[in-house]
TrEMBL record:
Organism (species): Comamonas testosteroni
GO biological process, one term: sulfur compound metabolic process
Full protein name: Alpha-ketoglutarate-dependent taurine dioxygenase
The protein's Enzyme Commission number: 1.14.11.17
Entry similarity comment: Belongs to the TfdA dioxygenase family.
Gene name linked to the record: tauD_2
Amino acid sequence: MSSPISVRILGPRIGAEVLKLDLADPLSAQTLQELEAALLRHEALVLHVPDMTPDQHLAIARHFGEAEVHTFYPNLGQGYEQITVIDSKLGDRADMWHHDESFLPSPPVVTMTHARILPPTGGDTCWISMTSAYDALSPQMKQYLDGLSAWHDMNSPMTAALQHGICTHERYVEVVAQNRRQLHPMVQVHPLTGRKALYVSPTYVTHIDGLPQAESRAILAYLHAHCMQVEFLFKHRWALGDMVIWDNRSVVHNAIMDYAPHQRRMHRASVFARQGVAAQKHHEQEAACATTE
């Protein structure tokens, strides 16, 4: 049986594109399984799908888990509440390095964004493989980080946004009142691949739990600079209708804000893990991925 998708590697450590995708409705189980296998291998996956419908978007999202209805961002409305609208004309932006919603106790495991309106130039998005960044640490640093946890706080970027006039005082008060902060291990093991990844970002992480302030700042500054090395990075220049799926467990991203006053509108679905998902799925997904390349 021929594979429903064909994958081309875009970077040595992160990034691939799907060259052949049958957008049959409904998408076949084999297609969805092979997409997941490719994502686990490459961490960020580009799909060229200008004709993708919201139903197909949600079908892919629901394969990975429970699609989120976002607390703050608008969505497509009745029946499509799980598709969030990120529109620069509404003041929405994500030009910061971050894992999506890492301030939650159980953040989304996968995010997928579909380009609906693009500026004439600019608006690229970058992703960094935090697995590759972890792998490149010295054995001494890996040992030092083992067992450490850091605080992820939604209030930190909101305070910066208020100071720079990016959000209103009313929106700031609304978000800060939620008091969304969470302690997460700084090194996490991917539940499906078994690979270790750094779980830190300059956007949401405020400090390392239990360390003196100066030491915490020094370690975080080193890790942030280490992760920014170009060999860990994948940059995508969007075309209308592109969708990028990324593994939020092992990747941070930054949507570059260099296109004002033009509009950029994306449709996004973020997915929470279902309870009781077995790590043994990875062996089947690896076998499926091997047939696509």
